[in-house]
Amino acid sequence: MLKKTMPRLVLAAAALAAVPLQAADTAPVPAMAARLAARVPVTGMARAGDALVAVGDYGTAIRSTDGGRTWQQAAVPVSTLLTAVHFADASNGWAVGHGGVVLASRDGGATWALQQVLDGKPVLLSVYFESAGRGYAVGAYGSAWRTADGGATWAPMMVGSGADADMHLNHLFAAPGGALYIAAESGLAFRSGDGGDTWTTLRPGASGSLWSGLAAGDEILLLGMSGRVLASRDGGGHWRTLDSGTGQSLTGAVADADGRLTVVGAGGAVLRGGHDRLAAEVRADRQNLAAVLLAPDGGVVVGGQLGVERLDPPR
């Protein structure tokens, strides 16, 4: 069993990968075509140029070219839970999920291929590519990997050490300038300024798990349990706690061109505002939201247990 409940749906237990890669033991089962694919639980979203791509349960991947108003399902060669997706540019993207699955797309998410299955089949929770060649994937029990050839091969990456070595690594993201950050369990975060060669443990003052993070303006923001929003202006040296107005776990956030934040979380929580004040509201459906994304037209798209939709403007 996992040590703690994971964000973005309940995740199954998996062993960490610590040896070279190998092909999957058996042929994977492709995702089924769903008549209401946009209503399948969604765990991750990303922009691919002007297209929006979302992934989630049952190996579902969907794509929108009209700002999230309509969605088309893509053929996916696996049916496992996909947890995260990221595009290095308008064409090249990767999705990861349970069972050490790494998928790749070369056409903006219209089609997907199974690129790798990491040996040991770890639960992968986050993927980030800084270019079409160099990328990172992290997940449960300290599982961390990087690639320098577009995902053709992956090498293990050591993030934590000692008691921190097997912490769940929930979300990896980058700041302007290239520094990498990981939001992790037990209130920990990690920072690397050298492309993952070495990592510094950050202790921002949270007691519960940190589920997500982002770089917004001149700040690094971390989101976590109990409505925790932590901000740092010095790369993680010092942190302040923002008043979120909610006690729900917060799982995703996005900043618009003016620096205004939209934060989503469990129990239908939606927070909007600036870095110093967030106004909280609760959706009537109280669904658990896992991801939020800006559409090309400035609209906000959210994904969660009831699929994807455009978010209504603030009341």
TrEMBL record:
Residues 69-116, 118-268 form the Photosynthesis system II assembly factor Ycf48/Hcf136-like domain. Keywords: Photosynthesis, Photosystem II, Signal. Residues 1-23 form the signal peptide. PANTHER family: PHOTOSYSTEM II STABILITY/ASSEMBLY FACTOR HCF136, CHLOROPLASTIC, PHOTOSYSTEM II STABILITY_ASSEMBLY FACTOR HCF136, CHLOROPLASTIC. This is WD40/YVTN/BNR-like repeat-containing protein. It comes from Thauera sinica. The lineage of its organism: Bacteria, Pseudomonadati, Pseudomonadota, Betaproteobacteria, Rhodocyclales.
